[in-house]
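Database export, one record per block. Field names are fixed; values are copied verbatim from the stored entry.
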Amino acid sequence: MKLTIDIRDNSAKYYDLNPHRPDDISFYKSLLTSPDVSVLELGCGTGRVLLPLSESCTYIHGLDLSEAMIELSNKRLLETKIPSNKALAEVGDITNFDLGRTFDLIIAPYRVLQNLETDEQVDGLFSCIHRHLAIGGSCILNVFKPFRDADGLRAEWVNNTENLAWERVIDGQRITCHDKRARMDATNLILYPELIYRTYSEDELKDETVLKVVMRCYYPDQFKRLIVDHGFEIMNTWGGYAEEIYGEGPELVVQFSNMTDQTQTYR
């Protein structure tokens, strides 16, 4: 039984073709302080991060709302013969889950947090992190740094023109991805881009899939405040995965832990 409509049902097959995904695997591996570390990955998708991290930790558990993405992740786990006591990927709502255990490291790579549209979803995510984070453990979340200030974003972001994001030729077929800045919630700074995937055999269009996504924007101080307001202590910050300074690089990456004072309340 599906938890909700899988918006990635038809587009999941294109996910791993994107050449512009972040070079973040080494970054996450560097945070595995020993082979005994347990990891929870929220929004694990097709296993892009989950599989390589399974080589360096005792156990990694992945959750993703998309059945299509989890199906691809489990196919890769099977192909690489990684046992289920080492790595597991399953369908789950990252804003409302209970795995009955804690983890040393919780991650949500490639801007997963920004796909949460409402305050209720964001609150649910942080509540789940609280419950599942081991004593002495940490969580890392990241978002992109907006390329304009809030007023500039409101004025310039929406553009219904299709822009070529990438193009690849695989097994004789040409595959393209265009993005379209369809609309935005100007009050809450939530973007609603569309990704249009097309597959051609020679010049004949064989497949077209449109993925409508949500990207909620956060600015550097706002992102840190969001984390602190939910009852966490910030440990480290980065501006990307190549030692950029927080607020100066393309990404906003924050590592945090549960507050030492467990009487702290949070939303």
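Remark 1: The helical segments are 12-15, 25-30, 50-54, 67-79, 119-132, 150-156, 220-229.
Remark 2: The two ends are 31 Å apart (CA to CA).
End of record.
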